[in-house]
Design a protein that fits this description.
Layout: E1 2-6, H1 13-19, H2 33-46, E2 49-59, E3 62-63, H3 73-78, E4 82-91, H4 94-106, H5 108-133, E5 143-144, H6 160-166, H7 169-173, E6 176-177, E7 183-184, E8 188-196, H8 217-220
Antiparallel strand pairs: 1-2, 2-3, 2-4, 4-8, 5-8, 6-7
Helix pairs in contact: 1-5, 2-5, 4-5
Length: 227
């Protein structure tokens, strides 16, 4: 089980605009640059990106010696051919939640921008974590799948508590889960990454698998939630 931190010095403005519903139509620097700069500074001041992950053996659809067992046809297909699976949890930590609560009381425009920036930031954090993981010597020579999170396709959110317990997320990085299966802090993500050899190259993220297919705010704008 490995833990760590990711330091961000900036927030991806293009991704922020996409989360605000302006992707592809408005250049970030053209939209109130001073406001965006201030929101970025305030977010970076409280952001404390932490993560924990662990590799488990995976055989015949079962994660060995693990309290969490993924359910659903989509995740089974996603992990087909894998012999190991990474359980990963990352968070921007509670300071971001506190900042958003304050902004929702004092300025909704800033709250919306900071929320979008935080969503962009957690994706950047996850990308950076992946880079770190797959630069480790023990990962050399392994193929890997893309990140698959509970709530995507038919992988239920009901397993979140077991997922977090399996990587000891609360003690390690302060991420918990209530009866609604929503994590706290809010800007936290859990995901699975399959490991194996000669995995199918067509194992790509697909809107057809997603539980939001037909009611996705990105697809309504002709965009995607993945890059």
């Amino acid at each position: 089980m490995l833990t760590g931190k990711i330091i961000l010095s900036s927030i991806d403005r293009t991704e922020t605009m996409r989360y605000l519903g302006m992707g592809g139509r408005v250049r970030p620097e053209e939209v109130l640059p001073a406001l965006f700069d201030r929101c970025e500074r305030e977010l970076l001041a409280v952001l404390d990106a932490k993560y924990v992950w662990q590799v488990f053996l995976y055989r015949e659809g079962v994660i060995e010696n693990c309290a969490y067992q993924p359910e659903g046809e989509a995740i089974a297909a996603h992990l087909a051919g894998c012999d190991r699976v990474i359980l990963l949890c990352a968070t921007l930590s509670g300071g971001v939640d506190a900042l958003l609560r304050r902004k929702r009381l004092t300025g909704m425009a800033e709250a919306m921008i900071i929320d979008a920036m935080a969503s962009a930031a957690i994706e950047t954090v996850l990308d950076r974590i992946e880079e770190e993981i797959f630069s480790l010597p023990g990962m050399a020579g392994s193929d890997h799948t893309w990140r698959f999170s509970p709530g995507y396709a038919d992988l239920p959110l009901s397993g979140q508590k077991a997922f977090l317990a399996s990587v000891n997320a609360y003690r390690r990085i302060g991420v918990g889960c209530g009866d609604s299966f929503l994590m706290t802090p809010m800007k936290s993500v859990t995901c699975l990454i399959g490991l194996g050899h000669d995995l199918p190259k067509e194992n790509l993220k697909s809107c057809a698998l997603c539980s939001l297919d037909g009611r996705c705010r990105f697809r309504e704008r002709g965009e995607y939630c993945y890059r």
